[in-house]
Amino acid sequence: MNIYALGEGSFSVDSTKKFVPFNPLTDSPTDRKGSIFIHVQPFLLKTEHDLILMDAGLGFKNPNGELMLHDNIRNAGFEPEDVTLILMSHLHYDHTGGLVVERNGRMEPSFPDAEHIIQRGEWEFAFSGKSSSYRQPIFEVLQQSVNVTLVEGSGNFRNGITYELTGGHCPFHQVFKIESAGEIYFFGGDVLPEPEQLIRKFAAKYDFDGKKSMELRERFGKQAAEENWICCFYHAKNLAIGKVTDNNGFSVKTLDS
Ligand SMILES: [Zn+2]
Description:
By secondary structure, the protein is α+β, with helices and mostly antiparallel strands. It contains 6 helices and 18 strands. The longest helix has 18 residues, at 210-227. Zinc ion binds at residues 92, 94-95, 190, 235.
C-alpha cells in the first residue's frame, strides 16, 4: 500500500467560518445549529521518486502540541522531513492550515524542505484579500521560507505527475493525476471531495461555479471508471480512497473489495 489518508477529524463550521472539532461519539450535532459538518483528510503517496502530500488540512495540534498532520505522517511510517513534494488543489483555509505551524509564538513552515506546487492564479488570488476563505499570513510565511513552484494552466509536472486547471470550486482550482507503480492516482480536491458527489448529481451552492463542478465530476467519474483510477476524496466521511465503477450510475468501492 502506497497511499494513506491522513484523517484530521470531523468539524462543524457555522457562518463565522470557524472550524470546531466535532467528535461524533461524544458531541451532539443538535448543539451546533446552523452548522455544516465536514471531514478532512490530506493524503500521502509514496512513489519511486517522491513522498507526496496532497493538501494539508486545518493545522490542528494534538494534545502533545505536535501538528496532527506530522503525527499522522509518522503513523504512516514516514517522517515529516521525508515529504519532498506538496500538491495543492487550491488554497482555502481547510486545505492550507497545516502548511504552517506555530512554534514559540512564531509561524513556521511545516515542510520547509518540500517543494510546494500551487496554481499561479490561485496564489495571486489568495494574496488579493478578495475572499475570507483564504488566510494571507500562511502564504506570507511560505513566500519567505519555502520553495513554491507556481504552475499555470494544465500540464506535466514531472515523473508521471500531471495537473489540470479546472476552476469550478474556486476560479483557479486544480486536480492532479499521478502515475506510479502501474496505478493511476487521482486527487480531485474540492471538485471531487466525496464519493457521494459522484453518486448523486447536483450543483453545490458553496462552489464558485456549481454547474462546472458538476460537469467535471461527471467527466472525472467516467475517466476514473474507464482507467481504473485510485481516487482520493479529501472531504469523505467514510470512504476516503476508492475506485469508481460506472454501470448506469457511479458507485465507489474500497480498494480491497
Ligand atoms: Zn475544502
